[in-house]
Each structure stands twice: as structure tokens, then as C-alpha cells.
Design a protein that fits this description.
Structural class: mainly alpha
Order of helices and strands: EEH
């Protein structure tokens, strides 16, 4: 299999390059020392992104629940202490 470096769109010159030809990139030997650091930084990045997504989900869920409860309120909700639980001995004179 051969790749052509120019498809002829910009000119008529095309050059066949074999697949197993060496690429013009610098060798990766000098970057092998930073593998542990890179893995640690990636792990910390993924964890912080996950925690951010959880925090965002909790915030959005709380807002949605508040809006849901607000839209389903009854006329009795305008009175003070509506829906509050009271102790059994309240108002018994004990």
C-alpha cells in the first residue's frame, strides 16, 4: 500500500511514499522518563473532572427539585407552618 502525498488538486506532481517509511518526528526516548508523572496528572485530571460532573449534577438536580416543588404548591402553602411536623404535646398545656 502506498500513500500519495499530493492528490493533484493543487498541482499535477504526485509522489508515492511507502507505508513503512520513517516519519519525520523526533524520537520518543526522552519522554519515557515522564510516563509516571503523565499518568499521575491524567489520573488527577480525570478524578477532578468526575467530581466536577457530580457537583454539577447535584446542583442541577437540586434546582430542578425546587422548581418542581414550587410549581406544585397549594393555596395552603402561603400560611405559616404549613406542612411542618409538630410535636404531640404541642398545645396540650403540659
Amino acid at each position: 500500500m502506498k500513500f500519495r502525498s499530493n492528490l493533484g488538486i493543487l498541482g499535477t506532481r504526485s509522489e508515492a511514499v511507502p507505508v513503512n517509511a520513517s516519519l519525520p518526528f523526533p524520537p520518543q526516548e526522552e519522554f519515557e522518563e515522564d510516563d509516571d508523572e503523565s499518568t499521575f496528572i491524567k489520573t488527577v485530571g480525570w478524578i477532578s473532572a468526575g467530581l466536577g460532573a457530580v457537583a454539577l449534577g447535584l446542583f442541577i438536580g437540586r434546582e430542578m427539585r425546587q422548581r418542581y416543588k414550587f410549581n406544585r404548591r397549594t393555596p395552603y402553602d402561603v400560611y405559616s407552618h404549613s406542612g411542618d411536623e409538630q410535636d404531640v404535646d404541642f398545645g396540650l398545656g403540659i
